[in-house]
Write a structure and sequence with these properties.
By secondary structure, this protein is of the alpha+beta class. It has 3 helices and 5 strands; from the N terminus they run E-E-E-H-E-H-H-E. It has one domain (2-97). The chain is globular and about 45 Å long.
Length: 98
């Protein structure tokens, strides 16, 4: 599955507007949380008035058949429009167990 999420958050490293795409994987032959891992790419932006005015949100894409609609949603979203020409303060890429 793919997850698109955005919004202003503070997870202990200061307040940032996060623009995030996460890919979730489920290992074959395993069950429960041990089977789930994810690769997360996040761009962090200083939260000015425009970014703070965008409500937090997320959207899941559950299948390849939905990928085109998912992409159109992201590219047409207020969050994408607000950050597409900005320089992120920081960008991370993380692989972790869910």
């Amino acid at each position: 599955m793919l997850l698109y999420q955005w919004g202003v958050f503070d997870f202990g490293k200061g307040e940032y507007f996060e623009f995030d795409i996460t890919r979730q994987f489920i290992a074959k032959g395993q069950a429960g949380n041990e089977a789930i891992s994810q690769f997360r790419c996040t761009a962090y932006f200083e939260p000015d008035a425009e970014l703070q005015s965008i409500p937090k949100g997320n959207l899941w894409c559950g299948s390849k058949a939905d990928l085109s609609t998912f992409k159109k949603y992201i590219l047409g979203s207020k969050a994408f429009s607000a950050v597409e020409n900005r320089l992120a303060s920081r960008v991370t890429a993380e692989w972790s167990k869910a």
